[in-house]
Amino acid sequence: MERLETTAGVRRRMSRQKSRNTGVEVALRRLLHASGLRYRIHRRPVKGVRREADIVFGPARVAVFVDGCFWHGCPEHATWPRNNADFWRTKIEGNRNRDLDTDARLAAAGWAVVRIWEHEDPAEAAERVRAAVAERRTPDPAEMNALQDELV
Fold it and tell me: CA 51, 52, 54, 60 torsion: positive or negative?
């Protein structure tokens, strides 16, 4: 792979970019946990598919991805660097295509995918995730008995 032309400052900033446990991701997880939801983090939802979700609700089959605006080409905040423009355009478009492929693969395996942009309000994002989990959640037997008792 050819070495990119860049400055020391840019190289330093890019090397410090977190890919896990970003501020938005942690804030979202805190809100989800506080609302009583339990989950796994940084897991591959489907065996044989080498894609890792940021938050995974296994029993409900919901995978949550928190996407960075720069890295995933946010329609609102994407910026296209002038230095090494071809490299970055190819990189970001590749990320977008991989995201679409991931969504399709997980959907084919019976999973729901929730994508959160880093600029989204964590409370609103948490509500979207809660709704997705609630929609797909299998009621436990005690809940089913209580519902049946109400109907009789």
Answer: positive
